[in-house]
Amino acid sequence: MTEYLLIDLDTERWLCRVCDNDFGDANGNYKEGTLVYDRDPREIHQPIIDPEKYEFTFSPDPAYCRILEFYCPGCATQIETEYVPPGHPPTVDMLWDIASLRAQWEQRATDPMVAITYGPGEDVQRHTHTPPQTPISR
User: Fold this and answer.
1) CA Rg value for the chain
2) 133 within domain boundaries
3) Structural domains of the chain, count
4) What pLDDT is recorded for position 36?
5) DSSP assignment, residue 32?
6) pTM for the predicted model, two decimal places
7) Contact at 8 Å (CB) between 110 and 103?
8) CB–CB of 3/14 below 8 Å?
9) 136 falls within a domain
């Protein structure tokens, strides 16, 4: 589903592609199974001008913006980051029709775990780009 997330169609569970940690029901929000770091946005976007002299410094105001970082509790891989107002619950960024996904893979007659998959450190280019058949002369 992403570089670090997959859905096991047999169990209908979100899994970490690095350590196989189970994040929960694939019909729900995987973020509920992660560790969340609620960051002060000024840590990431430091003031451009002196905050001692100016009220507005081109740095996000933590009273209006928080940065949520989502990590795998099994291996500490960062899965996602989002900017939200303080107190806002994590957003739902992916909802999948699991039955349709399963039907698509059954129609292909291929195990999705054996099909071309790539993960951290692997070369997606070699799986998605066909090399030229003849050299290009200039």
Assistant:
1) 21
2) no
3) 1
4) 95
5) G
6) 0.76
7) no
8) no
9) no
